[in-house]
Each structure stands twice: as structure tokens, then as C-alpha cells.
Amino acid sequence: MKRYLLLFVPLSLVVLVLVLTAGQTTADPQFPISQLTMTICSRGVPAKIWSTDVTNHGRDMVQQWEMESDDPRFVGSGYDIVNWNINLMTMSGVSWGDYELRNANGLDGWIGKWQGQLQPTDPPVFGADGMTVWLFEGRGQGHGLGQYDGLQEHFDVHQSVTVYPTEEDALQHAPCVTGATLDGQVFVMRNEIPAYVTGSVE
Hints:
Elements: H1 2-27, E1 34-43, E2 48-52, E3 55-69, E4 76-87, E5 92-102, E6 109-120, E7 134-145, E8 151-164, H2 167-171, E9 179-180, E10 186-199
Antiparallel strand pairs: 1-3, 1-10, 2-3, 3-4, 4-5, 5-6, 6-7, 7-8, 8-10, 9-10
């Protein structure tokens, strides 16, 4: 009898774990994903930039952008504050900052933080100032403003850059142009952003 009892105890634990795991799986809410496209329309000059050894540091650069989406909660204009540390030997770095998005009414929107990794474009793209254009991959979260108060936004960011011969060519595909290249063309930086919302509005 002891032998059967010893066998029964671990089997019972396995069944209990499976039941609990199944319960957690079914209890996890599934949130609909909204697809957002952010086009960076201008990039300012960092408030502070310096180098230590092989690392370049930048702080408080302002970017202005336009957000497009089938989800009206994320359509509007915004800006973010960009910081970075880039290792010039490994050609990789980190970036982080704050952002704010406002709908057309200027009242509703989102505010939060983001962070992630930097890599140079491949093949390389150089801005008119001679600086390498870096691409960002990361994530972030924020909270709602106005009628979205009580909601939280969670998102990933996948950045790309496209070079066009002229500004007219670029504006056929994007709402704005990010900047000029060293060879006299223009480039557009866009973020493809899957996002979902949690929380509830009071």
C-alpha cells in the first residue's frame, strides 16, 4: 500500500500542476493588436553630445513625428526625447527616452517611455551632416491622456529607413521627410509598431 501511495503522490502533483497551468493559460487575457506607423518628420540637435573612450553619448534630442493607424486612438502628431550611448568599436548602442502623442483635438493621447538597441543601417546611410543613420529596435509603454485616462499602452518598435531621389518622390509614400542624405537625396525613417492596450476607462 505504501508503494502505491508513494506513486500516487507525485502523480497527483503532476495533475495539479497541469490543472493550474491550464487555468493560467485560459485566464490570460488576449488583447487585440493595433498596427501603428510612425514617420519621423524632423530630428533636432541633442542638448548635449560628448565622447568618452570609444563611446558616443547624446542627450535630449527632440524628434517630431506623425502617427498613422486604423485605430483612431493612435492617429495624431507627437514627439519624443531621444538619448543614446553608442560604442564606436562594436557599432552598436542603446537608446531610451520619453514620448507624447496627441490626437487632432490636442486633448486625448498617450505619454510614456521607451528603450531599446541601436544598429547602423546596412548598407550605411549618411545624413547631410555626415553622421551615420542608426536604426532602433525596442519596446515601450505609456498611459492614456484625456478620454484614454486609465488605459495603458504596450508596444514594440521596428525601425527602417528608405532613401528617395527627391522630396517629391518621398512624399508619394510618406507624410513627411526625415532628412537629407550626404549625396543630396532624402531619407524617411519609419517605425512599424504593434501595440495593445490594457486597463479600463472610468
